[in-house]
Design goal:
- The protein is about 50% helix and about 5% strand.
- By secondary structure, the chain is mainly alpha-helical.
- The chain has one domain.
- The strands form 2 sheets. A two-stranded antiparallel sheet has the order 1-2. It has a two-stranded antiparallel ribbon with strand order 3-4.
- Helix 3 packs across helix 4, helix 3 packs across helix 5 and helix 5 packs across helix 6.
Length: about 160
């Protein structure tokens, strides 16, 4: 039997390049997951249908580093199983924007600082708790220093409507 799992994305490496811990994690996540709306999606699929209106297309994403993509998929699949489809899609887009805008291969202090300087502060605020949960769940892709930085970061919310 072949123990190598391919993340099915052009140019990505197979799971043999993952650490043994992350190979074990990947094997535990392969297969069907179910959203809060009862829709099933395959962890390795290019498209995740989250509900009748929302889906995630991994093919339109920038090239992720393998360990980062594993952690991102793991955290996002857990999030989609617990929270709304709209929230999961928003977090996917914000994290994808982080990679596109910074070129970083993981969630780092440098990358988060650069991302914060390029987006509205509430954009970072909307994804901060997801990134902290990603780290707390033990998935790869988030540096410990980034978590410490995010914990200390005070962000303003969206501007309230004026009358």
């Amino acid at each position: 039997m072949n123990d190598v799992i391919n993340l099915e994305r052009p140019g990505n490496l197979d799971s043999s390049s993952l650490s043994p811990k992350n190979q074990k994690l990947l094997k535990s996540l392969v297969g069907a997951h179910q959203t809060t709306m009862g829709y099933e999606f395959d962890f390795l699929a290019d498209n995740w249908r989250l509900d009748g209106s929302y889906g995630i297309n991994w093919l339109g994403s920038p090239e992720f580093e393998l360990e980062f993509e594993l952690g991102f998929r793991a955290a996002l699949s857990r999030y989609a199983e617990i929270y709304s489809a709209g929230s999961a899609l928003r977090l996917f887009k914000k994290t994808r924007d982080y990679v596109r805008l910074t070129g970083e291969k993981s969630l780092s202090v440098k990358g988060i600082s650069e991302f914060k300087s390029k987006v509205k502060e509430w954009d970072l605020g909307s994804v901060k708790s997801f990134w902290l949960a990603w780290y707390d769940w033990g998935f790869p892709g988030v540096e410990k220093e980034a978590v410490e930085f995010l914990d200390e970061l005070v962000l303003s919310g969206m501007e309230k409507a004026r009358r």
